[in-house]
Each structure stands twice: as structure tokens, then as C-alpha cells.
Amino acid sequence: MSDDVAGLRAELEQLRLRLIRLETRRTARVGMLVLGLALGLVVGWATLGPAQATQQKEEKDLVCRSLRVVGPTGKNLIFLGRDQDGGILEVSGHDGDVRAVVAVAPMQGGGLINLFDANKKLRLALEGANAGARIDKR
Are residues 96 and 43 both part of a single domain? Predict the structure, then answer.
């Protein structure tokens, strides 16, 4: 019987040692996980932290093919772009309907300003043509 008790004690000691090793590994894994999360938060905060405007030491140009400013519903309020005749600026109401256009007149003409009412009807057209200014009131 003493051999059985000695065998059980030896087996119990082996199980105790295995348990200690497992707990040590688990503690190390939890520690690594916590360290990884903390490092991720620090790096994320540093790179994605609150947006701040910074003063630039030199002037820089914004270069793009077009620029849109949209309202809360996603509709265009301002469009700055180009068409077949040249540059174009459109200003729209919150409903998305164009109210004013500043552009180059058709066929590479002079400057053009069109003003529309809330019903999309053209009310005033101003054009700087080679023959002189043209004003069309409707």
C-alpha cells in the first residue's frame, strides 16, 4: 500500500508542477496581450489622435480634377471643376438644385455668370464677350 501512496504522491507532484507551468504560461500570455493592447492604443492615439490644424512653413497648392462641398444630406452645395470649355463653379441650395454658375462661355468664349431661381429657371445671364458685355434678364 505504501508503494501505491508513494506512486500517487509522485503523480500528484507531477500534476502540481504541470499546473504551475500552465499558470505561468497563462500569466505570460495575458501579460503579452495586455502589453500588445496598450502598445496598440498608444500607437493608434499617436497616429490617429485628435485632428489639429498646423501652420505650414510654406504655401502649398491643392491639385485635383474637381472639388465638391456637400451638405448634411450628401447633395452638392459647391462644385468646382471643368467642362468642355474650361473651369466651372456651381453653387447649389440644400436641395441640390444649382442657383449660380460661373464658367467659361460655350466654344471657349468669355466669362459667363448664370443665376437661377429656386424653380431652376435661368433669371440672369452675364457674359463677357469679345464684342462687349451681354446681359440677359428674364
Answer: no
